Structure formats: C-alpha cells, structure tokens
Amino acid sequence: MDTPMASNDNTARRSGNASQPGALREAEHDRELHEVSVMVTDVTQPLLSVRRIAARLEEWADDPNWSLPNVAFRIHLGPDFGGISRIYTVRDYHAESGIFTFDVVLHDDPSPMMQWSAALQQGDRFALTGPRPHVGIPEPQDEKRKIALFLDETAIPALWSMLKSWPHGMAGTGWVVAADPAAFAELPRVPGLTLHRIDPAQPGEPREPLLARARALEDPQGHIVWGAGERSEMRAIRQHFVTTMGMARQDVAIAGYWKRGVSNTRIDARRREDYEKLIAAGGTLADFDDLAVEV
C-alpha cells in the first residue's frame, strides 16, 4: 500500500492547468495550498522497509506550515502514471535550506508509488501541492488526561514529526504495528510516553491488533486518542471510543491512510464523489468526514 493522508486527499492544483484522476477543483479545499516544484537532493534506504527521499522546495519555502508537526502534501506522479497523485507526510523540514524529507514504506506490490520512488534520482524534479496540517493531537480539557496512540507503520513518519515537538508533560501509551523493528526503533522517545511495538507476524495477533488494544484500554474517559492507519480498523476504533464508550468527538482524532485490498486511486475517487455531493448540498470542507466515505 501507499501511505496517503486522509483529510487532504483530492487536493487540486491551484494553477488549474492540469487535471488528475480523483482531484477536487474547489476553492475552499485549495485555500492556502501551493503548487510547488521541488528538486530531489537525496534518495536513501536507511531501513529495509523504508525509502527516504529528501527534496528542496524551489518556492514557498517560507510558508510556516511546512514546519508544523504532521504536515501533509500531495505528490503528482506525472503523465507516466496517468496523472495520479499520492499524499505523504513531511518527516522533517529545515526552513533555512527549504529541504524536507518523507518516507515511502516499501512493499512487494508494484504499485505506482513503488515504481515512481524507485526511479527517483538526485537532481530529479517533481510537482507537489501543499502544505496542509493534518490531524493533530486533541487538546485535553483536563491536564491530567493521558494520550492513547494507535497507529501502523504508514503513520510512523507522522508520529515521528509530532514527537519532535511533543507537548510538555503529556503522558500516555502508544501501540505501533510495525513489521520492521528498526522502523519502530527510529521513533524519538519522550518522557512519560510509553510506546509498544506490535509485530503483525506474531502468532496469536488478531487481524486488527490496534482495535484489540483500543478495546482493552483502561479508563478511556481519562484519555485523549490519536490514531492513523488502515481505514476499516481506524473507523472501528473511533466508533469504539465515541459511540460505545461515549467519549467526546473532539477528544478522538483518527485518520484512515489506506484500505486493505483497495487502491488509493479508488479511495481518491470515492472521496471526490462524496465531497462534491457535500458541496452541492451546501456543506463545507469542515463538514467532510473522511472516515465516513465508503470504499
């Protein structure tokens, strides 16, 4: 699977000179986004499971949103891939140089993102649209509340960026599904936050191990929740905390990055359909619930 970010899929190119499958063309959705050309400065594989790409923004590098934690952008893969695009997270950003890095989680399926990223070389250029701050940590109404994190390896870059600017004094527990222990080991450690790696190949692990941990969480009302990963599992986690446990919606921040057995191109198309229906009915971007999109 590729690793798209949920809330800012279907980002349209602001210039309006090109179209892409599944892309929205709507003013509110595009507000404050830039269509940017970037140059690849480095391509490495620091882990067996990760291809890490560094690129320099050739314009709009002074936009402060690039420096925020968990910022997403849309990569336009170009005409060789039918004009499709994919959403990724900024792992880290250096404002002085305009260089950012992002990780591509590797897998055996020859998806468009696997092919595109494998061909990248230093000096190559590509277009992206962004930046858009993504789902952040809920603001606790009570400083005594802890945080519970539920994510898979596709969300490790998002968590990495958040941990680098972790709120002072926020304690809690996180569960990370990661087949590659080295990917988990790269995560920064912060005082008061305990992270547990879940090995999906471990005998006895259920099909949805994060949902199992969510249901076993003691004192849900004493927590705020952040999660990101496979859409069906993330939806079930949100339903558990909000519907079953009665937690306030603003205390549960959940994003679906991918869906088992479904291409991200198809997910983009379904998001577009639902979003356009919402706008036609008088809704706004703030009303759009990505996890409610059926794919």
Q: What topology does this entry show?
A:
Layout: H1 27-30, E1 34-47, E2 50-57, E3 71-76, E4 85-89, E5 92-94, E6 99-105, H2 112-119, E7 125-133, E8 146-152, H3 156-163, E9 172-177, H4 181-185, E10 193-198, H5 209-216, E11 223-230, H6 231-244, E12 252-258, H7 264-280
Parallel strand pairs: 8-9, 8-11, 9-10, 11-12
Antiparallel strand pairs: 1-2, 1-7, 2-6, 3-4, 3-7, 5-6
Give a verbal description of the structure.
The chain is α/β, with parallel strands linked by helices and 295 residues long. The protein is 22% helix and 29% strand. The chain has helices at residues 27-30, 112-119, 156-163, 181-185, 209-216, 231-244, 264-280, and strands at residues 34-47, 50-57, 71-76, 85-89, 92-94, 99-105, 125-133, 146-152, 172-177, 193-198, 223-230, 252-258. α5 (209-216) packs parallel to α6. It is globular, with a radius of gyration of 18 Å. It starts with 26 loop residues before the first helix and ends in a 15-residue tail after the last helix.
Low-confidence stretches: 1-29
The largest pleated sheet is described as: 7 strands, antiparallel
Could you report the average pLDDT, rounded to the nearest whole number?
Answer: 87
Percent of sequence in beta strands? 25-35%
Give the helix proportion (percent range). Answer: 10-25%
Physical arrangement of strands within the biggest beta sheet? 4-3-7-1-2-6-5
**Content-based structural category:** alpha/beta
Number of strands: 12
**Structural shape:** globular
Secondary-structure element pattern, one letter each = HEEEEEEHEEHEHEHEHEH
Helix tally equals: 7
* Distance between the first and last residues' Cα: 15 Å
Radius of gyration: 18 Å
